[in-house]
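pasting for the record
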Amino acid sequence: MKTSNFKTTLLNALAISVLSFPSCKDDEEVVIPRTIVEEYTATINLTQLVDGADFRMNTTDYPYENAMRQKFKVTKLQYLISDITFSKDDATTVTDPGYHYVDLTNAASLSYTLATKIPAGTYSSIGFTFGFDQTDNVTGEYQDLNTIGWNWPAMLGGGYHFLRLEGGYLDSTNTPAEFKSHMGTARDNSTTPPTFEVNHFDVTLANSNVSVSTNFSFDIEMNIEEWYANPITWDFNVWNAPIMPIFGAQKALNTNGSSVFTFKK
């Protein structure tokens, strides 16, 4: 093999070179200093707000309003983030390739310690992927997510859910009704056969500059009302349950997702 021949030739050449030079016992040894960059542990706290106030789930009343002033409450909130990325001004990045599933009924899931250590330095921003990108959103790939039924139906494009946000609202007759804002791959039925669009989105958190010199933590805040407000006004009477097969609803969640998350040190 070429690799083996090259390696043998190189070793022979090195041996000849060593024999060709006289011993220099009296010469001082040259030591090249090695720069060691310290690395630190990052922990993320996942917090939830509605209109700047702490979020309350499973209320008996309907304490929240969307942009259409429709009153609603939340009974389930689960979501997935991946590829937490720290970026510097010179465009270098450090990415943790893992993912994290959040379920508000499990307090332990509200804290996420990255497996990747973050080198000391100043970072201009922190970002992440909401859900899985096209490369990672592979049906059946993650046993822990399969076990909890986080899969997205094959007929709708497969892969996994990115979001389950469920609850109740008061409809146009002031009658209680339910909504299920489930987000994943978007199926477009306007084509024959139907086509599928990846529906994750990437977030760069505003004002998320950090200087890393020790183990550290920060919050990623989900502002729940933004799913239903900005820039697309969400009408619960139109998009309630189910919305998984509805292309427009899936793309609306994707579009509104850009304003959902904020950073807090």
